Amino acid sequence: MPNSFGMRVLLVEDDADIAAPLVRGLEREGFLVTHSETGVGALAASDGPDAPDVVLLDLGLPDLDGFEVCRRMRSGSEVPIIVVTARGDEVDRVVGLELGADDYVVKPFSPRELVARVRSVLRRVATAAPPSAFEFGNLRVDTLTRDVTLDGAPVELRRREFDLLAFLCAAPRQVFSREQLLVNVWNSAPDWQDTATVSEHVHRLRAKIEVDPARPQRIVTVRGVGYRFEP
User: Under a CB-based contact definition with an 8 Å cutoff, are residues 101 and 84 in contact?
Assistant: First the structure.
C-alpha cells in the first residue's frame, strides 16, 4: 500500500456537507487536501508548484461542467482523476473514463471507501510511473527534483522552460506543433494564447542548453511543423 503521508489531494466538490467529512477522512490518513468548490478554481489549483498527486472531481459544479474540467486537466497533465458524482448512468461513466478519468465513484459512498480508491489509483500510477530522470549525453533532466545539469553543472531554468524541456525529453524525436505544446505544457490553446510564447521559450532554452544556440542540435526546428528533441 502506498504511503499517503504528504500526498496532495485536490477535492473538487461544491457541496460543503459532502466535502467536509471527505476532507477530514483524507487528512486523518495523512493526505494534504486542497478543496475547490468550482471548476475554474480546480483548474488553477491543479497547475502550480503544489499540483496535486490525485484529483477527486465532482461532475455537478456551479460553473464548468465536470466533464469539461476533466478534459482540460487531462490535456496538460497525467494526474490521476477520480470522478466522484451522483450520476450513475452508464453513459456518464463511459464518457468520464473516455475523457481520461482513472476511476469513477457513485454517491453515496463512505470516506473510507474513497480513501481506498485513492490509494488504489496511486498504487497503479506508482507501478506504471515513467522514468524520473532523462539522460542524453552530457544533459540530465530530473523530473522529480526539477534539476537540470549540463556537463555536471546546474542549469537554471524557469518553470515553463523546465516543463517544456521535460515534455520534449519524454518523447525524443517526436515532432510537436506549437499548438500541441501550448495544450500539453501550458494547458492552454491558440484561441487564447499566442503560439509565439512557445517560440520564445524554445529560444531561451536553446540559449541555456545548446553549444551553439544559432545551430541547435537538441531542440530542433521542423520547418512548417514545430519542434522535436534530438537525443
Answer: no
* Residue 39: domain span: 8-127
pLDDT recorded at residue 140:
95
Tell me whether residue 203 is in a domain.
yes
Same domain for 120 and 212, yes or no, is no
202 shares its domain with 149: yes
Quote the CA–CA distance of 219 and 171 in Å, as a whole number. Answer: 12
Give the full edge-to-edge strand order of the sheet including 133-136: 133-136, 139-142, 147-150, 153-154
Which spans in 14-131 are helix H? 16-28, 39-45, 66-76, 90-98, 111-127
Q: Is the peptide bond before 108 cis (omega within 30 degrees of 0)?
A: yes
Which pTM was predicted? 0.55
- Model confidence pLDDT, tens digit, residues 157-169: 999 999 999 999 9
Please report whether residue 3 resides in a domain.
Answer: no
